[in-house]
Design a protein that fits this description.
Elements (H helix, E strand, L loop, with lengths): L2 H16 L4 H11 L7 H18 L1 H13 L2 E4 L2 E4 L2 H22 L1 H8 L2 H17 L12 H13 L7 H11 L4 H30 L6 H27 L6 H18 L1
Antiparallel strand pairs: 1-2
Helix pairs in contact: 1-2, 1-3, 1-11, 2-7, 3-10, 3-11, 4-5, 5-8, 5-10, 7-12, 8-9, 9-10, 10-11
Length: about 270
């Protein structure tokens, strides 16, 4: 892998991690088209950790409030109902609840998921499915409900589905929130916050393998370049998507997913 490859893959990872078009799917197809062969685990970990920095910086104020609420917030039962002294504490707890499905699926079906990453045709088909999911959000009436326990479970299970390459994590989780009746902007914020434990967990699981293989000579510079580009592109993508969500235009990404899926499928089948 040279610096040009690192720059291209870093840009793709940063933009597609948060735009609803599947970062894993785009990386699999990009590596195939660039002729890079098998995935570089060390490079992938660096890109994921870079996008983690991007989302943490973008939501640093909210994250600070969540951490503070965990240590200072209180829960009490009044007239048969649980009440929270700080709504950020409630949000922190439902984020934990929504993380569980993806964690369980990822651990139980790790080998099956790895096989999916080695099948570009399956990735292309998954992009078509992502397009269908996004397109349907344009048919749902806009609602103002805040994220509740029921929404978090639905979003959590949709995130588990998005472990498969080609199924967009952000697109699927935001769409799940919209389909279940939650406010679009709140669904987007919840999706971004939910990406933090997922990206961190996946990075840490792979990091132990990186420690075993070590860092080959000459690979540090491409990793740093790719990581920097991914972090900057990720921060840009978050702000772009939030603006699109406010204008209720999420479904427009469906056309991109369908186009990308069909072009890659045709190239793979008829090259």
């Amino acid at each position: 892998m040279n610096l040009i490859h690192a720059l291209i893959l870093g840009l793709i990872q940063g933009l597609t991690e948060f735009l609803p078009v599947s970062s894993s799917g785009h990386l699999v197809l990009a590596e195939k088209f660039l002729g890079l062969g098998t995935s570089n685990l060390r490079f992938e970990v660096a890109l994921h950790l870079a996008t983690l920095l991007a989302v943490c910086f973008a939501f640093r104020r909210r994250i600070g409030k969540l951490i503070k609420a965990v240590f200072t917030g209180r829960i009490r039962r009044v007239k048969g109902k649980w009440q929270f002294s700080d709504d950020n504490l409630r949000l922190a707890l439902i984020l934990i609840l929504a993380t569980i499905p993806a964690a369980v699926i990822g651990i139980l079906f790790d080998d099956l998921i790895e096989q999916a990453f080695n099948n570009p045709i399956a990735v292309s088909l998954a992009l078509l499915a992502t397009g269908a999911i996004l397109f349907g959000t344009g048919k749902v009436a806009k609602r103002q409900e805040k994220i509740a326990w029921k929404h978090s479970l639905i979003i959590g299970f949709s995130q588990a589905l998005a472990i498969l390459p080609g199924i967009s994590r952000s697109g699927t989780t935001i769409s799940a929130g919209i389909y279940s009746g939650a406010d679009q902007e709140k669904s987007a914020e919840f999706s971004f916050l939910l990406s933090i434990p997922v990206i961190l967990g996946a990075g840490l699981l792979k990091f132990k393998d990186v420690l075993e293989t070590g860092l080959p000579k000459g690979e540090l510079i491409p990793i740093l370049v790719g990581g920097l580009v991914a972090a900057l592109a990720g921060y840009l993508a978050i702000n772009i998507l939030l603006k699109i969500i406010r204008n209720s235009k999420l479904q427009y990404f469906a056309y991109y997913c369908w186009t990308a899926g069909l072009i890659s499928l045709a190239w793979l089948l008829f090259k």
